């Protein structure tokens, strides 16, 4: 007959539950993994599967009761760590969506919007297109596996412990949020520049030939030029987003290191 003590049971549970919570925190907010179209059962199953693989390789857990106040504090800390690492990758996709919003408004497609269940709001068609393209690049470059690798490495640089988390890590997460506007503008800049010259040309044409209806000819010209520039800039978009993925993975590693007190 098998028998085990409460201490052994607590050690087994903590060695599995605390890593599981950190993994689920990342799966909940990371791109692709945390998409609303992915069922909750799949997310939980993925987290359990990864925890079963990772937990035997982790350092010894602190000798703290899982149901104690200190154990609950560790539980919350692990959730925050996973969310912080996953949020850094979410910033890259937010920057791409911001670029799509800017480009869509410049091309005159501000009316072409629909309800996006992921953001729970109205989203421009171009922003959705950019987001889908970013997801394909994310999967094609195996960045989802690299993100899981960053999470697994975080257990070495930031092991599970009862020590409080350092504020420097959360400051790095908040500071990296500025990349949404900087990178979004960089991605949209070619289209903005060409459409600005197009609008200037239309303005000069209207002044020299006032009988022309600028509203009748301006919209198709602006839309056509914008689509042509988008088609020509797609290879550069892929390269730029791949570089941003590498930068984001580095930031995720840095966040895990700076969260250590």
Structural features:
261 residues; mainly alpha; two-stranded antiparallel sheet; 8 helices; 74% helix; 3% strand
What's the number of domains? 1
The percent range for helix content is over 70%
Estimate the global geometry from the Cα principal axes.
Answer: elongated
Query: Which sheet architecture does the biggest sheet show?
Result: 2 strands, antiparallel
Calculate Rg over CA atoms.
24 Å
Number of DSSP-assigned strands: 2
Low-confidence parts lasting 5 or more residues at pLDDT below 50?
A: none
Order of helices and strands: HHHEEHHHHH
**Count of helical stretches:** 8
Task: Give the termini distance in whole angstroms.
Answer: 44 Å
> Overall mean pLDDT score?
81
Computed structural class: mainly alpha
- What strand order characterises the main sheet? 1-2
Strand content: under 5%
